[in-house]
């Protein structure tokens, strides 16, 4: 189990300490307040040393010197009380349930107006307490991302420990990644690398063709923009088992950002970049040069696609010569293509030709 994971009691104590700070401020005759990093795009910086997105130095104060501010702190206290009780009872809940549950709170001013408000408060509590929401026993509504490959692990569940081999003990759907991957202990692996795949269709093609068997690959289904649990287990596999991480997506600007979130983190979770991001991850494709070289079926770039690509030319995550060349080429040809467009060369082309050649070129195989 990851040593970075606090116990339920430690997580609960940090939450109670936050509430105690408000009490102490009251007792000292001060207006209660809570300082958090300013969560705007202008306060997100790309840390060149670590290669991930982090918060800058600007902070915002959640203070009770206005009715609006007092309500935010009141909601925070009620949420802390709920989370502390949840930890005490060894229960869990979803972000969506927290929003609805607030409607039962006896103080109407503490109730949330929409889920985005409760989601942001949970993120504030993560930042201020230094405890991840997973350690508060909070989870998203659904994830469903999976892993398939030669990996044996021990998973902590409510029904006790389970030892699972992620090929031999699972069906074609693979091993479903739990909400908190830090409850997993890696026991043994024959894997040589990780292949993180954007789409379910391509993930299924790789498994059906036995790519994980033939090349000792751990195939991780990103399921579009990857959930925190998916990025966390990918990082742990890289850091703890020394496995190279490769990312295989569609060939469009939104998919490049999926790669960016795996490698460098995202603006939304900048406070967790060092916990979630894997800067050593490498991008396999689909690359704009693949569209030309393999004469892939394409769609025309939309205006929003073009604007996104132009924005990426100024994005710190895409400043290498490789990315500049690829993005400029895509803007020039005005086309985008999907992973499954490789099937225009046959169902086995991706596993027999495209991926082996690309992985060999990258020094992974």
UniProtKB/TrEMBL annotation:
Catalyzed reaction equations: ATP-dependent breakage, passage and rejoining of double-stranded DNA
Residue span, Type II DNA topoisomerase VI subunit A all-beta domain: 141-190
Any GO BP annotation: DNA topological change
Domain Topoisomerase 6 subunit A/Spo11 TOPRIM positions: 193-359
Keywords: ATP-binding, DNA-binding, Isomerase, Magnesium, Metal-binding, Nucleotide-binding, Topoisomerase
InterPro entries noted in UniProt: Spo11/TopoVI_A, Spo11/TopoVI_A_N, Spo11/TopoVI_A_sf, Topo_VI_alpha, TopoVI_A, TOPRIM_Topo6A/Spo11, WH-like_DNA-bd_sf
Active site residues of this protein: 100 (o-(5'-phospho-dna)-tyrosine intermediate)
EC class (word): isomerase
MF terms in GO: ATP binding; DNA binding; DNA topoisomerase type II (double strand cut, ATP-hydrolyzing) activity; magnesium ion binding
Presence of keyword Iron-sulfur: no
Listed SUPFAM superfamilies: DNA topoisomerase IV, alpha subunit (SSF56726)
UniProt binding sites for Mg(2+): 198, 250
Swiss-Prot/TrEMBL cofactor(s): Mg(2+)
Domain Spo11/DNA topoisomerase VI subunit A N-terminal: 71-137
EC number(s) recorded for this UniProt protein: 5.6.2.2
Domain of life: Archaea
The family this protein is said to belong to: Belongs to the TOP6A family.
Subunit structure and binding partners: Homodimer. Heterotetramer of two Top6A and two Top6B chains.
HAMAP family to which the protein is assigned, alphabetical: Top6A (MF_00132)
Function description: Relaxes both positive and negative superturns and exhibits a strong decatenase activity.
Protein name as annotated: Type 2 DNA topoisomerase 6 subunit A
Gene designation per UniProt: top6A
């Amino acid at each position: 189990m990851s040593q970075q994971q606090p116990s339920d009691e430690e997580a609960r104590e940090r939450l109670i300490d936050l509430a105690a700070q408000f009490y102490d401020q009251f007792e000292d005759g001060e207006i209660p307040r809570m300082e958090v990093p300013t969560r705007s795009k202008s306060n997100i910086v790309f840390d060149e040393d670590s290669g991930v997105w982090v918060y800058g130095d600007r902070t915002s104060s959640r203070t009770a010197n206005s009715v609006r501010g007092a309500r935010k702190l009141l909601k925070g206290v009620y949420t802390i009380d709920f989370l502390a009780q949840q930890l005490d009872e060894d229960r869990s809940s979803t972000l969506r349930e927290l929003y609805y549950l607030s409607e039962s709170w006896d103080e109407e001013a503490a109730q949330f107006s929409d889920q985005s408000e409760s989601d942001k408060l949970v993120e504030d509590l993560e930042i201020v307490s230094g405890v991840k929401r997973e350690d508060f026993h909070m989870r998203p509504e659904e994830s469903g991302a999976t892993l398939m490959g030669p990996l044996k692990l021990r998973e902590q569940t409510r029904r006790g420990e389970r030892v699972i081999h992620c090929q031999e003990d699972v069906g074609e759907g693979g091993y479903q990644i739990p909400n908190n991957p830090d409850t997993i202990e890696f026991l043994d692996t024959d894997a040589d690398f990780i292949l993180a795949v954007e789409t379910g269709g391509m993930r299924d093609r790789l498994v059906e063709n036995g790519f994980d068997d033939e090349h000792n690959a751990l195939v991780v289904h990103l399921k579009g923009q990857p959930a925190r649990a998916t990025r966390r287990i990918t990082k742990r596999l890289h850091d703890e088992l020394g496995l190279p991480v490769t990312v295989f997506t569609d060939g469009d600007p939104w998919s490049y950002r999926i790669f960016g979130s795996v490698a460098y983190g995202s603006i939304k979770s900048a406070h967790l970049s060092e916990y979630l991001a894997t800067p050593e991850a490498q991008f396999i494709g689909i690359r704009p040069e693949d569209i030309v070289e393999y004469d892939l079926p394409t769609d025309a770039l939309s205006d929003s696609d073009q604007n996104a690509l132009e924005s990426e030319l100024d994005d710190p995550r895409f400043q290498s010569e490789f990315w500049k060349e690829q993005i400029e080429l895509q803007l020039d040809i005005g086309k985008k293509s999907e992973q499954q467009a490789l099937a225009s060369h046959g169902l086995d082309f991706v596993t027999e030709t495209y991926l082996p050649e690309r992985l060999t070129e990258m020094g992974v195989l």
